[in-house]
Design goal:
The protein is α+β, with helices and mostly antiparallel strands. The protein has one domain: Chorismate synthase AroC (Chorismate synthase, AroC fold, 4-Layer Sandwich), CATH 3.60.150.10. It contains 10 helices and 17 strands. Helix 1 packs antiparallel against helix 9, helix 3 crosses helix 4 and helix 8 packs antiparallel against helix 9. It is globular, with a radius of gyration of 22 Å. The chain starts with a strand and ends with a helix. Bound molecules: flavin mononucleotide (FMN) and the ligand C=C(O[C@@H]1CC(C(=O)O)=C[C@@H](OP(=O)(O)O)[C@H]1O)C(=O)O. Flavin mononucleotide (FMN) binds next to helix 9. The site of ligand EPS has 12 residues, from loops. Keywords: Amino-acid biosynthesis, Aromatic amino acid biosynthesis, FAD, Flavoprotein, FMN, Lyase, NADP. One of its GO terms (molecular function) is FMN binding. This is Chorismate synthase. Belongs to the chorismate synthase family. Its EC number is 4.2.3.5.
Length: 387
């Protein structure tokens, strides 16, 4: 299973093609739209999100609510395009077209490197594609993967554990339903109401200072069968693929699995998860400090991982840069921007994780139809139980 996205931030639309889905999978546009709506929300977002109202148009591969096995094409309109048609013109003879050239690279963005690499003297040709607008298409792909997971009884949730200097922890014992319910009510997707207040205040203060904030999100996947991924092939290790999926989100700089970097500080007895067996549960673990992975494969315990997002690079308090025409220094002009997008990025993280787990599921249990896939997954659950 694979996907491809196309589209510029201020172009007419984002386009997504998902290929390799089994047939007969119930695929709901509403469920894709739910994820798109969730991604648009969150305290700290800028004015662009008031312009957009993301919705997926399903153009192929689905009939009467079920996949046919053919590629699924989806489109998400950019409502802002209407104001950018002259600047984003595809055709050279467009009368209204105006280049409004970008010659000033923004620190923290792809502008300068992308311009040198692809030889663009107009950095709009870089920034339009490097924008995190593209994460709407990736969220839609994840929302498709998520429906495949749901079909197999696998569920995904996410929440924010840090914004700037304010951090919190998920308390032991929270069920996935509680995590979903609480994070959904919170403007910063935080489970703890005290931390939530502090995070909001922190975002307000940073904004007033013309600054921005990053943070950390946590994603949890439950009811995963044992053995997704592989200890045999380095490029099929699912923990590694999830790390790539997370760091590929714009502005994400690192990943922790389970207790993550703390594993480097603790003794082995405080890291590895003892194996238990009972009539009721079969094999299970006394703890889940390794976040559901051993040897690049799922253990059957929940997958738990965290991703760190750097602060938004476009600041109202300008950073220094150099004009590529004059080579003179300049202070970046003030632009419309999010000042904290961690809650929104949490939704992107959930969905890129959902996609990778769904992809690994289909690799482990190859199937032409959704029913065959579910049978394969259930057989593995049974085998693990009786092993
Ligand atoms: C959901 C989301 C929204 C973002 N919004 C902005 C924004 O409004 N302004 C900005 O400068 N960067 C924003 N970013 C971050 C940039 O896209 C990102 O830092 C940039 O593309 C450079 O990529 P890199 O940080 O991965 O190196 C956002 C990222 C995400 C995930
Ligand atoms: C459009 C989205 O996020 C954008 C990501 C982004 C960036 O530089 O990454 C910059 C901003 O774009 P604009 O300059 O048009 O306001 C954000 O709004 C989105 O999340 O859908």
């Amino acid at each position: 299973m694979r996907y491809l996205t196309a589209g510029e931030s201020h172009g007419p639309q984002l386009t997504l093609i998902v290929e390799g889905l089994p047939s007969q999978l119930p695929l709901s546009k509403e469920k894709v739209d739910d994820q798109l709506r969730r991604r648009q929300k969150g305290y700290g977002r800028g004015r662009r999100m008031q312009i957009e109202s993301d919705e997926a148009q399903i153009l192929s591969g689905v009939r009467f609510g079920k996949t046919t096995g053919a590629p699924v094409a989806l489109a998400i309109e950019n409502k802002d395009w209407k104001k950018w048609t002259d600047i984003m013109s595809v055709y050279p003879d467009d009368e209204k077209a105006t280049k409004r050239r970008v010659s000033r690279p923004r620190p923290g963005h792809a502008d300068l490197n992308g311009a040198i690499k692809y030889n663009h003297r107009d950095m709009r040709d870089v920034l339009e594609r490097s924008s995190a607008r593209e994460t709407a298409a990736r969220t839609a792909a994840g929302a498709v993967g998520r429906q495949l997971l749901e079909y197999c009884g696998i569920r995904v949730a996410g929440h924010v554990v840090r914004i700037g200097s304010v951090s919190t922890r998920r308390l032991e014992g929270w069920s996935l339903e509680e995590i979903v319910e609480r994070s959904e009510q919170s403007p910063v997707r935080c489970l703890d109401s005290d931390a939530e207040k502090k995070m909001i205040q922190h975002i307000d203060e940073a904004k007033a200072e013309g600054d921005s904030l990053g943070g950390v999100v946590e994603v949890i996947v439950e009811n995963v069968p044992v053995g997704l991924g592989s200890h045999v092939h380095w490029d099929r290790k699912l923990d590694a693929r999830l790390a790539q999926a997370i760091v590929s989100i714009n502005a994400f700089k690192g990943v922790e699995i389970g207790i993550g970097f703390e594993a480097g500080e603790r003794k082995g007895s405080q890291v590895h998860d003892p194996i238990l067996w009972s009539e009721e549960k079969g094999y299970h673990r006394a703890s889940n400090r390794l976040g559901g992975f051993e040897g690049g494969m799922t253990t059957g315990e929940p997958i738990v991982l965290r991703g760190v997002m750097k602060p938004i690079p476009t600041l109202y308090k300008p950073l220094q840069s150099v004009d590529i025409d004059t080579k003179e220094p300049f202070a970046a002009s003030i632009e419309r921007s999010d000042n904290c997008a961690v809650p929104a990025a949490c939704v992107v993280a959930e969905n890129v994780v959902a996609w990778e787990v769904a992809r690994s599921l289909l690799e482990t249990f190859p199937a032409d139809t959704a029913e065959d896939l579910l049978q394969g997954v259930n057989r593995r659950r049974e085998e693990a139980r009786n092993f």
